[in-house]
Specification:
391 residues, alpha/beta, eight-stranded parallel sheet, binds alpha-D-galactopyranose
Length: 391
């Protein structure tokens, strides 16, 4: 199967962990379909780990837990499909999943046939308990082959967290995305760490096999399976915007049915979704922050020099000739973002400049001859969609 854009949807793990059941999945499908999410592109409803019994049946198949899923998986899949959505499930390349339920090792073709029969459209494939005696790429190739011969189009979302240099072999396996990070949790520290870690992987992302930065924690507000401290609204905005600038899958992880208004606004930001899903699918480039020559002050706090890892400024050329530009303040200080037009392909001689629209406020400004500048509070970001215009 060929996947042309980073998948969007919802996954049960971040909030529900082991406490997953058909009611949660079906109500979430209703919510996605009825509250505008489906129309924005969120299409996969994905059940993560802990959906089965601990043992396979006599035919060697994994059995859905009858308490959690009393009507079986085909029933849930049919319901999700009836809402105009797609249905995702989870398994693992080892003999056990990370939560110690049956994994697909040595049962890949049997499991792929089951998933096809149930109507699965997306498979997240984890890497816990993989045997040391074989290579990760053998196991991902095996499941990819099983899926591409199961008679149904199933997106193959590899989840080996970047282990064993995944980036160098994942494309050849047939995977449609690869988890390029360890597990996220609902805290600023986790978001910051994942973002800073991912910049070096930007060049591996692209059509055919997307870098997957893990499910979103926007809207968890410290509640659920991977909850920790929770984040502020600005931190959730920075998180969502960074995922979009990097072109990661956007898989919601909160209990969407209970998400507050601020979270819903972030998750529904159409300009960021359009950047994430831009069909040219070019990787972002990083404009190295320059030293700020004239140190200015906000209140009594000095504007410190910027370093790329603290305040990355990235840009992405979009399919219609626009440029997405984002600056992210990962530091705990006020910082000044300053990008030269030269670094974006413009310059004095071109006779052109940029009209920029702030994706959060919708405000538009013409840059003129100057650099693009903004001051950023700690943990905040600014993202523009910039249009090339005559000076
Ligand atoms: C791993 C994955 C997570 C989640 C859990 C489930 O940790 O990286 O995303 O799927 O397993 O056990």
């Amino acid at each position: 199967m060929i996947v042309n854009r980073p998948p969007m949807g919802w996954n049960s793990w971040n909030t529900f962990g082991e406490n997953i059941n058909e009611t949660v999945v079906m109500e979430t499908a209703d919510f996605i379909a009825e509250n505008g999410y489906r129309d924005l592109g969120y299409e996969y409803v994905i059940i993560d780990d802990c959906w089965s019994l601990r043992d396979r049946n006599e035919a060697g198949e994994i059995v859905p837990d009858p308490v959690k899923f009393p009507h079986g998986m085909k029933y849930v899949a049919d319901y999700v499909h009836s809402k105009g959505l797609k249905f995702g499930m989870y398994s693992c390349a080892g003999p056990m999943t990370c939560a110690r339920y049956p994994g697909s090792y040595d049962h890949e073709f049997v499991d792929a046939a089951c998933f096809a029969r149930w109507g699965v459209d997306y498979l997240k494939y984890d890497y816990c308990y993989h045997p040391e005696s074989t290579y990760g790429h053998y196991l991902y190739k095996r499941m990819a082959l099983a899926l591409s011969n199961c008679g149904r189009d199933i997106v193959f979302a590899a989840c080996s967290w970047g282990a064993e240099n995944t980036k160098t072999w994942i494309k050849e396996t047939g995977a449609d995305s690869w988890r390029s990070t360890g597990d996220i949790n609902d805290s600023w520290a986790s978001i910051k760490m994942l973002c800073q870690d991912q910049m070096k992987f930007a060049e591996y992302n692209g059509k055919g096999c997307f870098n997957d930065m893990d499910m979103l924690v926007v809207g968890m507000n410290g509640k659920g399976n991977v909850a920790l401290t929770g984040c502020t609204e600005e931190e959730y905005k920075t998180h969502f915007a960074f995922w979009a600038m990097m072109g990661s899958p956007l898989i919601i992880g909160c209990d969407l049915r209970k998400a507050d208004e601020a979270a819903q606004k972030i998750l529904k930001n159409e300009m960021l979704i359009a950047i994430d899903q831009d069909e040219a699918y070019r990787q972002p480039f990083f404009i190295n922050s320059r030293r700020i020559e004239n140190v200015r002050r906000v209140g009594s706090e000095p504007l410190l020099e910027s370093y790329p890892e603290d305040i990355p400024i990235m840009a992405r050329l979009l399919s219609n000739g626009d440029i997405a530009i984002g600056a992210f303040n990962f530091s705990d200080h006020h910082r000044c973002f300053d990008a030269q037009l030269d670094s974006l392909g413009l310059g004095e001689c071109t006779g052109k400049t940029l009209e920029v629209t702030n994706v959060w406020t919708g405000e538009t400004a013409v840059i003129g001859k100057s650099n693009i500048r903004a001051e950023l509070d700690p943990h905040c970001c600014v993202v523009y969609r910039a249009r090339v215009i005559d000076k």
